[in-house]
């Protein structure tokens, strides 16, 4: 029996590189950095002063004052990205189709800014000062719930949290929902708004963040010998996934196809990846097997590429373990060099960049890769993007807790790859 094919028909995003998918992608293509000095919080109490902030985001203007007051920034990002994606897809939600359309919107930490605010309010002013909206603002599933309510989606609605693998897992699991026949369309993606002092302090005390405060645009340096940690970012990305027959029947524009999905666990360490790369390599192999592809079929890899010493070396090892000698001939890049690390939302925005790479036949660069690390010896597309035919892209996402999630996206053709 032929496997149900899943295609992508709509995109939405707000990121440190722009408040639409197209703006974000054009800046990534050009190798521009979205990282700068933090403006949202008082950095005098923390060591890290830099991040990839979303700029010019006016929740009141975009969502209305009432909705903005009742939601955390993390949910606001998700709602705006979801609205963009649905509009881009050309799909209108009606009483006749709303039961067939669902969403899975994940996050790593959810409304942590609202949690931080509520704790401070409770300590300073007591229990009666806590807002009745505080719980809904804090809950990690509030974004998926609010998107469902905002757009009138009555199909499956849930939230996944797998740390920095969340975005990839949400896309992969949304595809599985459609394949099971539980929905015809799913909005899938992730959101994060964790530029909060307590988060930044925690990551910094783990020695995970870059402290290159005097050179924000040069701080995110995946695969470079002088990398000293990741740079936190924020934002959201949402994709419209659709059953191919449903998409064709309504004449939808098709961006790409979801070809493969693999996810595994390291079962190794709370925060560190396996040095051998075994768990990550198995996720890549699983995705290739589901896609019925060979390593040589890959045209580009959007790496997890965080800029931490452990991750970049481990991911390089994992890619070589999964792909063998072919790994040396496949262009790779880390767009986190420009966006920073959007944590739970990373895989979702990187899926959009992967789709745009297919659309434009263009591989975005890894900026700030000035001194190659001998332990990272693959082709990471240093500093300048490359025009090249791109039909199949692998995108990796790995998270604290040992989560590994890989998706493979391909150019849509009538006959398909499977």
Describe the structure in your own words:
This protein folds into two domains: 6-249, Thiolase/Chalcone synthase (Peroxisomal Thiolase, Chain A, domain 1, 3-Layer(aba) Sandwich), CATH 3.40.47.10; 259-410, 3-Layer(aba) Sandwich (Peroxisomal Thiolase, Chain A, domain 1), CATH 3.40.47.10. The protein has 418 residues and is of the alpha/beta class. The model has no long low-confidence stretch (mean pLDDT 96). The protein contains 14 helices and 14 strands. Strand 13 and strand 14 form a beta hairpin. It is globular, with a radius of gyration of 20 Å.
Overall pLDDT score: 96
Output the structural class: alpha/beta
CATH architecture of the largest domain: 3-Layer(aba) Sandwich
Tell me the radius of gyration.
Answer: 20 Å
Query: Strand content of the residues, in percent?
Result: 15-25%
Model regions low in confidence, pLDDT < 50 over at least 5 residues: none
What name is given to the CATH topology of the largest domain? Peroxisomal Thiolase, Chain A, domain 1
């Amino acid at each position: 029996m032929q496997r149900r094919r899943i295609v992508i028909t709509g995109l939405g995003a707000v990121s440190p590189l722009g408040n639409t998918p197209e703006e974000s992608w054009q800046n990534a293509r050009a190798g521009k950095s979205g990282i700068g000095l933090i403006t949202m919080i008082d950095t005098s109490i923390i060591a890290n002063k830099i991040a990839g902030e979303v700029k010019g985001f006016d929740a009141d203007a975009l969502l209305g004052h009432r909705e903005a007051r009742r939601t955390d920034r993390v949910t606001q990002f998700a709602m705006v990205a979801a609205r963009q994606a649905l509009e881009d897809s050309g799909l209108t939600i009606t009483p006749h189709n709303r039961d067939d359309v669902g969403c899975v919107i994940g996050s790593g930490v959810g409304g942590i800014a609202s949690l931080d605010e509520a704790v401070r309010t409770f300590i300073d002013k007591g229990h009666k000062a806590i807002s009745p909206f505080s719980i809904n603002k804090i809950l990690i599933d509030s974004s998926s719930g609010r998107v469902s309510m905002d757009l009138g989606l009555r199909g499956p609605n849930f939230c996944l949290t797998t740390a920095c693998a969340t975005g990839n897992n949400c896309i992969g699991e949304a595809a599985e929902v459609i394949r099971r026949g539980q929905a015809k369309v799913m909005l899938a993606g992730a959101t994060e708004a964790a530029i909060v002092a307590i988060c930044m302090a925690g990551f910094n005390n783990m020695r995970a963040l870059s402290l290159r405060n005097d050179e924000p645009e040069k701080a995110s340096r995946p695969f470079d010998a002088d990398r000293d940690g990741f740079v936190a970012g924020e934002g959201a990305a949402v994709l419209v996934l659709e059953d191919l027959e449903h998409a064709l029947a309504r004449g939808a524009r098709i961006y790409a196809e979801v070809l493969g999905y693999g996810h595994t666990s390291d079962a190794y360490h709370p925060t560190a990846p396996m040095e051998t790369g075994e768990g990550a390599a198995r996720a890549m192999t699983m995705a290739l097997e589901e896609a019925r592809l060979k390593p040589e079929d890959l045209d580009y890899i959007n790496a997890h590429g965080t800029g931490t010493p452990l991750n970049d070396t481990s991911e390089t090892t994992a890619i070589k373990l999964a792909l063998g000698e072919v790994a040396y001939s496949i262009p790779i890049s880390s767009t986190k060099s420009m966006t920073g690390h959007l944590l739970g939302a990373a895989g979702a925005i990187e899926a959009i960049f992967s789709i745009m790479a297919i659309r434009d036949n263009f591989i975005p660069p890894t900026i700030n890769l000035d001194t190659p690390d001998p332990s990272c010896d693959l082709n990471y597309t240093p500093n300048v993007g490359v025009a090249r035919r791109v039909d199949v892209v692998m995108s990796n996402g790995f998270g604290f807790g040992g989560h590994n999630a890989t998706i493979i996206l391909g150019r849509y053709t009538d006959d398909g790859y499977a």
